[in-house]
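Homework help board

Subject: predicted structure for assignment chain

Our instructor gave us this sequence and asked us to write out the predicted structure in token form, then describe one feature. I got the tokens but I'm not sure how to describe them. Can anyone check?
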Amino acid sequence: MKPYKNWTAPKYRKSYRKKYGSKCFVEPARLKYPICTNGHINCKALNAAQYYAILNNKRTLTKKIKGLKNKWC
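My token output:
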């Protein structure tokens, strides 16, 4: 059995999305790549999201993150 086969987002991410909205995630449907701290977009979180998107070969997300970095950082 693969350890990440049935991966679900931690419960705190669900409550975080409920509290601050889907703008705090690059991929809000799957609750992946959180980019906010206390409801504000954070440049360090954008850098981390970009790193993991590149690591996982998510080219469309990488372009989206670069656009967000140009806007917020």
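Reply (TA_rk): Your tokens look well-formed. For the description, you could write something like this. Residues 59-72 form the longest helix (14 residues). That's the kind of observation they're looking for.
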